[in-house]
Amino acid sequence: MEASEFVPRDWREWRRMRALHLKQQGWLQRDIAEALGASEETVSRWLARVRDAGPQALQARPAPGHPPKLSDAQKRLIPEFLWHGPEAYGFRGEVWTRARIAQVIEEEFGVHYHKGHVGRLLQELCWTPQVPIRRAIQRDEEAIERWRDEVWPDLQRCARREHRVLIFEDESGFYLLPGVVKTYSPRGLTPVLWEKQTRDHLSVMGGMTPQGKIYTLARQESLNGLHSVEFLTHLLRVAGERLLVIWDGSPIHRREAVKDFVSGTRGKIRLEALPGYAPDLNPWDEGGWQHLKHVEMRNLVCLDVEQLHQEFHLAIGRLRQKPHLVQSFFAQAGLQLEKT
After folding, report:
1. Domain tally for the chain?
2. Cβ–Cβ < 8 Å for 309, 258
3. Contact 20, 46 (CB under 8 A)
4. Overall average pLDDT of the 240-259 stretch
5. pLDDT for 83 beyond 90
6. pTM (2 decimals)?
7. DSSP symbols for 21-63
C-alpha cells in the first residue's frame, strides 16, 4: 500500500508517512531527515517499523487510559469561544484565567475540568499566559492608524526632500532596583539580593533614527523643558544641521523655552507631535527602552546612581553596535521604513 493513500490524523503521523512516501520515491535517508527536520536515526527507525509491520505501523495510536471528555472538534471550538472576550460570558474585565476558561468549557460543553488541566489544554491549543499590553481608553485608534499609514510615510518623504535627519525622541527612567533578576541556588535555599531601597534614578532622553543611530542625554535629576532645549542643541551638533524631531505631547516638550529655542533656529528644527495616548508608535517605547532594561542591563544591581550612569552608557554603546536591531524597533512599532 502506498503511503500517499493514508490520511494523517496529526502532524507527527503526517511526518512519518511523508518519510515513507519520500523513501518510496527513491530519496536517500539523510535527505529525508533534512527535509523533515528529523535525525537520520529517527528516519531509519520509522522505515524499520514499516519493514517489520507494514505502513500501518506509522499510523498514530490512540492514547491509553480514560477517553478524553472533549473531542478534537470540540477542543478546536474553544479558541473561537475565547475570542469573544471574558465579558461576553459575564466576567468583569478583559482577562482570561484558567478558572474562567474552565467555566466557559462547562457552560458550552457541560464538561467540568480542573483549572490545572485547563492549562494543559490551552498549551495544546497554543494559548500561553502572557502579560497584556496596556492601552489608554482615550486612544483614537483611527487617528493612530492614519498616522501610521499616511502621516509617517509623508514625514519620511519630507525629511528626504528637505534634507533633514528624522529622529524619534522619548524619555525614560532607570532605577537602581533591577527589573528582572534570576540566579541559580540550591533547592529550598532562596538567595538574598541586597539592594539599596531608594527612588534615586537616572533620567534619560533618547533620539533614534531610521538608519539605526542612537543619541542620548542622561541626567541624575528629573527632566524639564530646559533639558529638552539642551537635547535639541546636542542633536543639532552631533546628528545634523537640519532635523525633523518626532515626539509626544509631554509638558517638557511644550514649554515656552522650547518653543522659543526652536523658533530661533530659523527652520533648522521641525517638530512633529505623535497622536495622543499612542506610545506604541514610538520605536523607543516598547523597543529601545525595553531592550536596554531587560536585555542589555538585565540582572544588573547598581549600588548608586553613578554606577547606574556608567552601566547605562556601556549598554548604549553595545546597542549602537547593532543598527539592524535598532531598525527592528521601527518594525515593532508598525512603522515601515522607505528605501532611500
Report:
1. 3
2. no
3. yes
4. 95
5. no
6. 0.67
7. HHHHTT--HHHHHHHHT--HHHHHHHHHHHHHH-GGGGS--PP
Residue range 74-79: mean pLDDT, rounded:
90
Q: Is residue 263 part of a domain?
A: yes
Average pLDDT, the chain: 88
Of all helices (H) and strands (E), which one includes residue 271?
strand 269-273
| Cα-to-chain-centroid distance, residue 248 | 22
Sheet holding 243-247, edge to edge: 214-219, 201-208, 165-175, 243-247, 269-273
CA dist., res. 207 & res. 81, Å (int): 43
> What CATH number does residue 223 fall under?
3.30.420.10
> If pLDDT is split at 50, 70 and 90, which confidence band does 10 have?
low
Judged by DSSP in three states, 304 sits in coil
How far apart CA 27 and CA 24 sit, in angstroms, is 7
Name the residue range of residue 30's domain: 3-58
